[in-house]
Amino acid sequence: MTKILVINGSYRSDGITDQAINVMVLALREANADVDVVLLREYPIEFCLNCRECTQQKGSVPGKCVQQDAMQALVDKIERADAYILASPTNFGSVTAIFKRFMERLVVYAYWPWGQHSPDFRKNNEPKKKALLVSSCAAPGVLGRWLYDTHKQLKTTAKVVGAETVGTLFTGFVSQRSQPILPPQIQNKAKSLVAKLL
Predict the structure, then answer these.
(1) Coiled-coil ranges per the record (predicted)?
(2) Which domains does the chain have, with CATH numbers?
(3) In Å, what is the CA distance from 67 to each residue of 52, 53, 148, 156, 179?
(4) What is the DSSP secondary structure assignment for residue 173, as one 8-state letter?
(5) What residues does 6 pair with on adjacent strands?
(6) Is the pTM of this model over 0.85?
(7) Cα(24)–Cα(185) distance, rounded to whole angstroms?
(8) Per-residue pLDDT tens over the stretch 8-57
(9) Which helix (H) or strand (E) holds 110?
(10) Which of 26, 51, 138, 159 could potentially form a cystine with 175 if both were Cys, beta carbons 3.0 to 4.6 Å apart?
């Protein structure tokens, strides 16, 4: 059974991002995938301390963080998963602050000894897993995808954990109403995209 890990960086319960994830999760479960959804808004992750203690050990296994929070359990989930859905709406031209906090803690996936100018990512030489990227913005979808950093940051996150991006769901014009509803054509695209993870 394929294990899919969903990491959702939306602040808003039942907003566009949650609605898109719900459609995808339902489709994956109908295809007998094992799906685990992590809502970062409910997940206790502290800020990275930039101590780089976790980056000093060689090898493909993620380093150990000095923080005593739930990030280690999330790294364990990342390691066990066969594929990912990484999601964040666009806030101020970027992923949300909670998704960025999560991204920064992924430094455990880097080997970066003192004196070395830049990190080597631990998963670069391993077989790639698959990832779908989900985002939205107030601007037109195509424009938002290219103007803002959200898509780039989600793609970087996938790469760091050892995944290749195989599909993207980017919804535009999401600020037209206070209670947005995921359009039927986007729901259909969300359903069709999940096949790329299986």
Answers:
(1) none
(2) 3-197 (3.40.50.360)
(3) 12, 10, 31, 23, 37
(4) -
(5) 37, 85
(6) yes
(7) 13
(8) 999 999 999 999 999 999 999 999 999 999 999 999 999 999 999 999 99
(9) strand 110-111
(10) 138
